[in-house]
Design a protein that fits this description.
Elements lengths: L1 H8 L1 E5 L3 E7 L2 E6 L11 E15 L6 E9 L5 E4 L4 E10 L16 H8 L1
Antiparallel strand pairs: 1-2, 2-3, 3-7, 4-5, 4-6, 4-7
Length: about 120
């Protein structure tokens, strides 16, 4: 269906079973969030997410997840998890890289996943 069409026309990568990322243009991605994040993570950049559906976002320093509908501003250094009850699509636009020490999970060393995954797919 829609995912097969996107896979035909865009480079893409996966982040485990939780997310498929389609590269539309530099700094513009379409995300298909299949399931909730298993761990907290940060990002290498600030960004905005236009949400087609809804999800909850739990920040590491908070006890209650916030409902995100339509729009979310993602801060580079803010550790968070995305929680979904059913798959959701987002249009994600990131700004310039400002965080060279971004993390996924409890690992102390910086995560090296997304950029490398994209380069392998080309």
């Amino acid at each position: 269906m829609l995912e097969n069409l996107f896979k035909k026309f865009f480079n893409y990568s996966t982040a485990g079973p939780a997310l498929t990322r389609y590269y539309v243009m530099p700094h513009v991605k379409i995300h298909r969030i299949h399931s909730s994040d298993e761990s907290f993570h940060t990002h290498p950049w600030n960004g905005v997410s236009f949400i087609f559906g809804k999800y909850r976002e739990l920040h590491k320093d908070s006890k209650k997840a916030k409902l995100r509908i339509l729009f979310n501003f993602v801060k580079a250094h803010k550790a968070h998890r995305v929680i979904v009850h059913k798959p959701v699509w987002t249009l994600f636009i990131n700004f310039r890289r400002i965080n060279e020490n971004w993390h996924y999970g409890d690992d102390e060393k910086p995560w090296e996943g997304s950029d490398q995954e994209r380069n392998k797919k080309k």
